[in-house]
Write a structure and sequence with these properties.
- The structure is a single chain.
- The protein has helices at 7-17, 30-43, 59-73, 91-98, 118-127, 129-132, 178-192, 210-223, 227-240, 244-250, 278-287, 310-315, 333-339, 343-348, 407-412, 423-436, 473-481, 485-488; strands at residues 22-27, 47-52, 77-83, 103-108, 140-143, 147-151, 172-176, 197-199, 252-254, 256-260, 292-297, 319-325, 352-356, 389-393, 397-401, 416-421, 442-448, 451-457, 463-466.
- The chain has 18 helices and 19 strands.
- Strand 14 and strand 15 form a beta hairpin.
- The chain is an alpha+beta fold.
- The strands form two sheets. The chain has a ten-stranded mixed sheet with strand order 10-16-15-14-11-12-13-17-18-19, sandwiched between helices. A nine-stranded mixed sheet has the order 8-4-3-2-5-6-7-1-9, sandwiched between helices.
- The protein folds into two domains: 7-250, Endonuclease, Chain A; 259-488, Endonuclease, Chain A (2-Layer Sandwich).
- Helix 13 packs across helix 17 (473-481).
- The chain is globular and about 70 Å long.
Length: 491
């Protein structure tokens, strides 16, 4: 009897049969995006590579840490690359994880001194802001260089929608074999080996068996009754029984181009040169758009972003639709301040503009995380804020990744995006975006006699029109600060 193919060998075999294409599935629901990551960790045989901007304590990430240790116990080499900005007081826990002989944690562009206390850490950030505002915004989850997940989601409960069936907050892609997964693996290696990826051991280390204590602590916390935790566990169980044939039915096979900033872009003085930036390659994709472009981005500032020229698109007759956050829903009102002045000129040129509106949400146990291990936030999203970064290019291509349409994504963050050649996935993405533009989920902006008007449906099902945008005083003040030219350049 022939021995069954390993997971990696099976993925490569399927890709070879498709002439090097990758099998792709859009992951619109947060619970499925979480479950796919967990199953890839469970089935890893040699390597598990994880790269993320935010890794925040919560029900989902505690289970992910356990999955990493379980993989390491099977002999899998686990590499965890984190942007240092969100590590904060988690470094003790990460040092325990790093104590496992098969696990290594590295921090990208880390704070070099004052890491122990919040005050000294913030002081170090302030004194080194020219270097430390350059962040790694990429998100990757790769097993055995055969399967990959990438997109907009950070690793945090908020991004996995344990308390909602909403399907358009964020979007990831599962990739199986082929040229796309191969290129994504190469991008991870480029970052992992760069001098800005500093081993955590350079700052803090735990005893050789400290991971045992961490494992026990996490098992106890995950065993405690929790509605969110139960939903996460159920999501994994729902997918665990799927056969390879069931996965194949969900996949669309396509070629693609992986775009990413060189990690060296975060190391140079001032704006990085074009050869280091993915935005220059994305600009070439936009220049070839002939008919239609749909942008869904949590942060949208079409100003000061080099060759990404919205006006050139409109001048040649491209129909543009933009979906972004309203002031009342965004988690970064500063960015909204940079975007706000562009609404009138865009609408005047025929752009369709939608802003995701506030929707009341309850967060009973989902936010029962260790506050000291959470990142600092100027504003919390008080609704289901849009976080996806997607681009439907004409009707035959799309790009999904971490790239927002703003100066920060072009000049200051390291980003990643994959341009996919697929009419089927383009159509699916447009369908997802169409849901987000429904009046119960977003405001449709119009220009009436030169004045902005926001239209949506009230809770009672009646159309309502607003002549000023909604948002509390604190959000409005932040938005005003975001209009300052020096600040806007950094957003």
């Amino acid at each position: 009897m022939n021995k069954p193919l390993s997971e990696a060998a099976w993925a490569h075999q399927q890709a070879e049969q498709q002439h090097g294409k990758s099998g792709l599935q859009l992951l619109g629901h947060g619970l499925e995006a979480y479950a796919r990551r967990m199953l890839l960790a469970e089935r890893a045989e040699q390597r598990l590579d994880i790269q993320t901007y935010i890794f925040e304590d919560g029900h989902s990430t505690r289970r992910m840490l356990l999955a990493m240790m379980a993989a390491a116990e099977r002999g899998v080499k686990v590499r965890l690359l984190l942007d240092d900005l969100s590590v904060g007081h988690q470094q003790g826990r990460l040092a325990q994880l790093d104590s496992h002989p098969n696990i290594e944690v590295r921090l990208f562009n880390p704070v070099r001194w004052g890491r122990r206390f919040t005050v000294t850490r913030l002081l170090s950030l302030a004194l080194n802001v020219r270097r430390l505002h350059r962040r790694m915004h990429n998100k990757l989850w790769i097993t055995d260089a055969a399967y990959a997940i990438w997109g907009g989601r950070n690793l945090s409960d908020f991004y996995f929608s344990a308390e909602t069936d909403n399907s358009f907050i964020d979007l990831d892609v599962l990739g199986v074999g082929g040229n796309i997964v191969h290129a994504l693996s190469a991008s991870f290696e480029a970052y992992w080996r760069h001098r800005l990826a500093v081993p955590l051991k350079a700052f803090i280390a735990s005893g050789p068996n400290a991971w045992h204590k961490l494992k026990q602590e996490l098992e106890e916390r995950c065993a405690a009754p929790s509605t969110a935790g139960e939903r996460f566990d159920e999501g994994v169980e729902d997918l665990r029984g799927d056969s390879r044939d069931a996965l194949l039915e969900r996949l669309t096979w396509a070629h693609g181009r992986v775009l990413y900033d060189s990690p060296e872009a975060a190391a140079v003085e001032g704006p990085p040169p074009e050869k280091l930036r993915m935005s220059s390659r994305f600009a070439q994709e936009l220049e070839s758009v002939e008919h239609s472009l749909v942008i869904a981005a949590g942060y949208f500032i079409p100003d000061g972003i080099d060759r990404l020229d919205i006006h050139a698109l409109l001048a040649r007759g491209v129909k543009l639709t933009v979906i972004t956050n309203a002031l009342e829903s965004t988690d970064v009102p500063l960015v909204h301040g940079g975007y706000g002045p562009w609404r009138v000129p865009l609408l005047a040129k025929g752009v369709k503009l939608y802003e995701i509106r506030h929707r009341s949400r309850t967060r009973p146990r989902l936010d029962a995380r260790l506050r000291s291990r959470s990142r600092l936030k100027l504003s919390r999203p008080n609704s289901y804020a849009l976080h996806a970064k997607t681009y439907a290019l004409d009707y035959d291509r799309l790009m999904i990744g971490s790239f927002n349409f703003d100066p920060r994504s072009v000049w200051w963050n390291c980003e990643l995006g994959v341009v996919i050649e697929s009419e089927a996935l383009n159509k699916e993405l447009r369908g997802i975006n169409a849901v987000s533009t429904l009046p119960e989920f977003s405001y449709r902006l119009k220009l009436i006699k030169g004045k902005l008007r926001w239209s949506s449906i009230s809770r009672k099902g009646k159309f309502r029109h607003y002549h000023s945008e909604r948002g509390n005083l604190w959000r409005r003040c932040q938005a005003l600060v975001g209009r300052i030219p020096l600040i806007k350049r950094l957003l």
